[in-house]
Write a structure and sequence with these properties.
Elements (H helix, E strand, L loop, with lengths): L1 E6 L4 E6 L8 E12 L3 E12 L4 E12 L7 H22 L4 E6 L2 H8 L7 H13 L14
Parallel strand pairs: 3-6
Antiparallel strand pairs: 1-2, 3-4, 4-5
Helix pairs in contact: 1-3
């Protein structure tokens, strides 16, 4: 297992890199990221799927982040947006340290997907700030509404 030192702008940390990410016979790597929220917490997880020269594939969790809901609480759509923001930060970090050909971010919240398609200027302050940050972290990301609802 290798160790990578990094910073997210506010904190310095060391991240252990799973062995799957250091294999040399890989022809493609794809990140899949999921965000979700409940009444008690919200969070995100990043998986990697890689295809090897022999045609086999492997999947592993790269990293995850969860947060307990604030005491004041958030509405369900705002909690889903907070989860999407955590996901965007994980995506930015992962894309900086990994050689990735393709990325897909997933959310089951139609409201969040709709907010991400709008200009932040047309949204209230709480939502606008997070949408603006997500757009800055993932420039050019256009969420698509599909049956699976990915962003």
């Amino acid at each position: 297992m290798e160790t990578v030192d990094g910073s997210d702008g506010n904190h310095h940390f060391s991240q252990h890199i799973p062995q799957i990410l250091t294999e040399s016979d890989v022809i493609s790597r794809t990140l899949h990221k999921f965000a979700d929220a409940s009444q008690e917490a919200y969070g995100a997880v990043v998986y990697i799927q890689q295809t090897h020269l022999d045609g086999s594939s492997a999947t592993a969790i790269v990293m995850s982040k969860a947060r307990v809901m604030p005491l004041k609480g958030l509405t369900r759509p705002r909690a889903e947006l907070a989860a999407a923001y955590v996901l965007a930060k994980l995506l930015k970090y992962c894309s900086n340290i990994l050689d990735i050909q393709s990325m897909t971010a997933w959310s089951d919240s139609s409201i969040v997907l709709c907010w991400l398609k709008k200009s932040p200027n047309s949204l209230n302050t709480f939502v606008a700030n997070r949408v603006r940050h997500i757009h800055q972290l993932i420039p050019g990301a256009e969420p698509s509404k599909t049956k699976e609802k990915h962003m």
